[in-house]
């Protein structure tokens, strides 16, 4: 076998190994560098819808979200559990998952701890309702509506809010 052919096979094996590693380990839990890469596997245990989602607030850390449709990518989201579902929010910057909910509908899966729920996201467009939900989200994040989540982002009162409810 020639050296170029061996090198080509080695590069192919390396790319395949990196791809398998990424699929198995992403998403990383950060908001910088590799942490911005989504994953493919949500995991967890399929769990029937709860009568009240507020006990999920005892979970420390973000939830994982995977939307239905291609590509099915898993990302981390901050959340607040309330009786009828789960509140999540995103910057009003035409970001990936918020736009997918608007364009394709909000069917997907949410994983909190080891529990994975089939849910549907609905964007909250009524300002009074959106701000009331965002106040709960901000409080769980330790901020006020007038604070940005991080330097350079919009104040939380400008963010888009989504309510995830059990899929029927």
Walkthrough of the structure:
With 168 residues, the protein is an alpha+beta fold. It has 2 domains: 3-36; 45-166, Roll (Pnp Oxidase, Chain A). The protein is built from 3 helices and 8 strands, in the order αβββββαββαβ. The protein has helices spanning 3-25, 96-104, 127-140; strands spanning 45-46, 63-67, 74-77, 80-82, 85-90, 107-112, 115-124, 160-166. Strands 1, 2, 3, 4, 5, 6, 7 and 8 form an 8-stranded mixed sheet that branches. β2 and β3 form a beta hairpin. The longest helix has 23 residues, at 3-25. The chain is elongated. Mean pLDDT is 81; it is low at 28-37.
Report the structural category.
alpha+beta
User: What's the total helix number?
Assistant: 3
Considering the protein shown, what is the CATH homologous superfamily of the largest domain? Electron Transport, Fmn-binding Protein, Chain A
CATH topology annotation of the largest domain? Pnp Oxidase, Chain A
Q: Fraction of residues in helices?
A: 25-40%
Count of DSSP strands: 8
Instruction: Using the 3D structure, state the CATH architecture of the largest domain.
Output: Roll
CATH class bucket of the largest domain: Mainly Beta
**Overall pLDDT confidence:** 81
